[in-house]
Amino acid sequence: MRIVSTLFVAFSAAVVLTSCGAGGDNQGTEYAPNMYHSVAYEPYSQITDEDAGRWLTSIDYPDGHAEFYNSNKFNPYRMNMRESAPHTVARNKHGWLPYRLGKDSLAFAAANVKSPLDSTAAIIADGKVLYETYCDHCHGPKGKGDGKVAAGGIKVEVNGEQKERSIYAGVANLTSDALKGVSEGHIFHVITMGKGLMWSHGSQISPEDRWKIAKYVKTLQK
Amino acid sequence: MSSDSRFVPLVLKTDTEPNMNRNFISSACKFLSLVFVFAFLNLTSNAQEISKEPAAISAGETLFNANCKACHRVKSKLVGPALQNVYDRAPSIDWIKSFVKNSSGVIASGDDYANKLYNEFNKTQMTAFSSFKDADIMNILAYIKAETEKVAVTQVPNGPVPPTGGGDGGVSKTYLDVILAGMLLILVLLLIILGFLVSALKRFLDQKELSEEEKEVVHSPITLGTVTSSSGFIFIVVFLAGALGFKAVINGLYSIGIQQGYAPKQPIAFSHKIHAGQLEIDCKYCHVGVMKGKSATIPSVNICMNCHNQIKEGQQTGTGEIAKITAAWENKKPIEWVRIHNLPDLAYFNHSQHVNVAGVECQTCHGPIETMDVVRQHSLLTMGWCIDCHRKTDVNTKGNAYYDKLVELHKEKSKTPMKVEDEGGLECAKCHY
């Protein structure tokens, strides 16, 4: 009987410990949890429950929250991320100020805004990499408007049924006669502000990178 | 382009097409064609201008694919209207020409038909194709006409798609069943053979001269009780249970603080398999911070909307999940994704150092993310895991002047390539501070 009870204890310990592992919705057991959880605000974690981690709280926080609480109650949605302070502008390492022309100034931008970059091979090579990251899936590797997101007629199987994949319609062929002649300023403005069916990509791509892409697009159009 | 009959009717309208003359050779030719066309007009009542010549159609097809296909299909509405029968529908062929060349001009001139179209299509302005010649537009129309007519023919044989086979899932299952049944049969046969052996042995021993004690042993019945109480059996059971239990305990202890395999349900059933796998959208298109900062960044809703302003129906979940993005966009409410990779606060990790400077692929740490419908933590993210990689990996020094001197110094002392370890990749304060 002693053997049986020993076995039983060992097994229950094993079962308890196996449940420490993570999987599915279970995050697993943290080792030394108060070293996991930041006291400072963390941009991508937010714990809004003020009582989270009460069981190991050893500090008297001024507003009485528990150890794991990490959320800024003064921000919208109690987010930890902040928007930049009003009336301030970001400058990049070249000291460029943000692009200020409005969305409807495409014609003006096309005629007057000039690329600050030289057409060196290195810059065009950078532009190619960036184009392949940000434009390729719509405009296609050669700018023909045939990227994977825009290419029609591709069938996918959904629950045993063949369905035509949704596509992004209306993607411009950058090498078409209508667009061949556009200036780099035009392309820069379209990336920044969007145009028609193409939405603005200004939040994703820095101004310098946008100019590099514009340079590369011009080489595609040759 | 030869001046074949399809251009001829344009000659009739030279007053509205002042630049037409350059396409034609001589007035004599014009006159001849005029006569010709009048005869032709009596025979065919509509769309007589549009060529049926294969050369024109294929030239039109090339032009159509390069310039129009982005927004137009022949038989279905896309961004702009379906183009079948435009030549009958639009006010005139001339109208089509001027609209293609300068749509906003036609709209601004107050043209009824153009304004109706403009409003019907959400005031989307069509690109002006000012470089097109009339001949180009006629070729495109020839292509559209050919397609319009072809469509009517090819649509007929559109029967139900024959079911494709019985699915190989069924096949492999029966295969497994056969193997299982075979194994069972062999086991039963073995049991029978063993039974025969036992009785044969018994008979053999019975024929010998045995003492009473020995006889008892030979004839003692074999029951479940006698088997389970035998010491050999108990030893095996205890040993197996002990070993398994020990392994389970060790595994359990090792899994504390490790979140490998964590795959929480997200507020929107976003699939990396579709976006990164099928559509091959670059990881960095959405995770824009990865080359620049500590965090790879979770895309903000406007990045989703770059495509999902138009794409409203997904392959797997229909419209339900995508509608959540639109709702978040319209209500200006952020989507609360569940964080998967939780590095302890005591360790510092920077994405740009690894992805931008070292050129490490996303998959090196995140696993085959482009095949995952639900993202799970692929790697251990333990210190041992970090250190292991820092010991094995060569520093990506190519084209980076920062490393030039370090590489030189390293070469003086060692013949092996410089590893991360060699430039302080194992120092405590690199990650813990």
Automatic annotation (TrEMBL), chain A:
Metal-binding as UniProt keyword: yes
GO molecular function, one term: electron transfer activity
Signal peptide per UniProt: 1-21
PROSITE patterns: CYTC, PROKAR_LIPOPROTEIN
SUPFAM superfamilies xref list: Cytochrome c
Domain Cytochrome c stretches: 122-221
Keywords attached to this entry: Heme, Iron, Metal-binding, Signal
Transit peptide in keyword set: no
Name under which the protein is recorded: Cytochrome c, mono-and diheme variants
Annotated organism of origin: Chryseolinea serpens
TrEMBL record, chain B:
Organism whose genome encodes this protein: Chryseolinea serpens
Transmembrane regions: 24-43, 178-201, 221-246
GO MF annotation: an example: electron transfer activity
Gene3D superfamilies: Cytochrome c-like domain, Cytochrome C3
Residue ranges annotated for the Cytochrome c domain, each copy included: 55-148
Keywords: Electron transport, Heme, Iron, Membrane, Metal-binding, Transmembrane, Transmembrane helix, Transport
InterPro entries: Cyt_c-like_dom, Cyt_c-like_dom_sf, Cyt_c_III_dom, Multihaem_cyt_sf
SUPFAM superfamilies: Cytochrome c (SSF46626), Multiheme cytochromes (SSF48695)
Record-given protein name: Cytochrome c2
Highest classification ranks of the organism: Bacteria, Pseudomonadati, Bacteroidota, Cytophagia, Cytophagales
CDD domains: Cytochrom_C3
